[in-house]
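Can anyone check this?
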Amino acid sequence: MNTMDVDLDRLRPVVAAMVRQYGGPIQDIDDLLQDTWLSLQSVRFDPARGDWPTLCRVVARRRAHDYYRKIASSGAQCNGGKADSLEAITAARGDSHCGGSVEDDTRRVEAADELRQVLEVLHLVQDALGMDEGRVETFLRLHLIYDGDTTAASADLGISAHALRVASREVITLAQVIRGALGAPDDERSIVATVASVPSAIGRLAPAYLGAAQRVGGVTAVDAHALAKVTGSPFNTTRQYWARVRDLARVAAWTFGHQGRPATDQDQLFPGGL
């Protein structure tokens, strides 16, 4: 199974119900939906042992249960516990129930190698594009020193737990785009498809936003006002996500170029260069 087989719209109500059941904040929905998508990348599905939609729902419930169990064991509130982990970048987790299984030892080795490669490119791309270096440093410190515990990290670093979680999500999203570009087959070198693969609202909105940008001459030829009119999206939603979609498109384009195999849609999106 691949990412196209995961119906995020059908999973969202399942995840939302679990968040409500555990009394978590609404922002946990996107986090757990992303966790579910990542887990499903490591699943080997056996149709003889169950159906795919059921497996997706079971994994969604398992991710929510694991997430809030970790928070409870750390003694933190639902909105201040463990943040997304390093392994989220490479989707190293898997589920063996309902027809899914992974070869754990092999996958761990592959995930470690992939993580090193993604982080290396992440440092290169942020330097090349003049991006904020603080997010990656904060993310690595949070997970390597504080084991993802936002409560402890917040107290020591003087950064709010919410800000730590936001930074962590942003870095993971950047890493997911880099990972997608690094792993794309030669005949699928698409910036739009790579950003669209991110399992969040950004991924869902990317095709419409970047598609509109392509039609009018590139990402610099359209702003949030014009984009809202063209796509029919609410202006506040467009303003919230367009800058992030645009930055992720730049990251995808740079990563493809770094490999010496430019994306097929780069000239349409960035006719004047990055």
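Reply from J.R.: I decoded it. Confidence is low (pLDDT under 50) at residues 76-83, 91-104.
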